[in-house]
Amino acid sequence: MKGIMPAIFSLIILLTGCGPSTKIEKSWAEPSLKTSGPKPFNKVLVIGLLKDESTRRIAEDKMVAAIKASTAVQSYMYLQPGDTKDNSTEVGERMKKDGFDGIVIMRLADMEKSTNYVPGTSYGGWYGYYRYAAPMYGSPGYYTEDKTYYVESNVYSLS
User: Fold this and answer.
1) pLDDT tens column, 106-157
2) Which residue intervals of the chain are DSSP H helices?
């Protein structure tokens, strides 16, 4: 029993290391915040800069769910059709008045496609006719197209 626990623990560590990884390519922070530390936001507006309206709504909904705060609001729920960069100061004042102190803006920076071949399978035998006919039963190989999305996310403080 004593030998099983280290083996199970080693297996868990091995399987955890095999998972996909997410890494931060570049990061920047205001130098003055390095000493005092950032103040947590109370209410955040999440903005997705995407061309397709339904994709934007889905992305904003997922970001609000990932923030796990009841104070995160999607931009499609808050911003009005007349809110553009021309009246950004008015929008900023309205946001401060409504209690927002942070903004998260995300955009699709790049997308890469890659093609991979997945070999087929065949069932072979060890003798006679079964060995001859079995390779006809199996699955053919196929190609898959994988997409990698690079999303740029910026966090701003209204103060």
Assistant:
1) 998 898 999 999 888 766 555 555 556 555 566 788 999 999 888 888 888 8
2) 4-17, 33-36, 53-67, 75-78, 88-97, 128-133
Residue 49 phi/psi, 5° resolution? Answer: -95, 85
Statement: the pTM of the whole predicted model exceeds 0.70 = no
Strands 138-139 and 121-122: antiparallel
Dist CA 142 CA 114 (whole Å): 14
Q: Show me where the domains of the chain are located.
A: 38-157
Tokens of 15: 């399987």
Describe the strand order of the beta sheet including 102-118 as a list of residue ranges: 72-74, 44-49, 102-118, 142-157
Q: How far is CA 102 from CA 39, 114, 159, in A?
A: 10, 36, 8
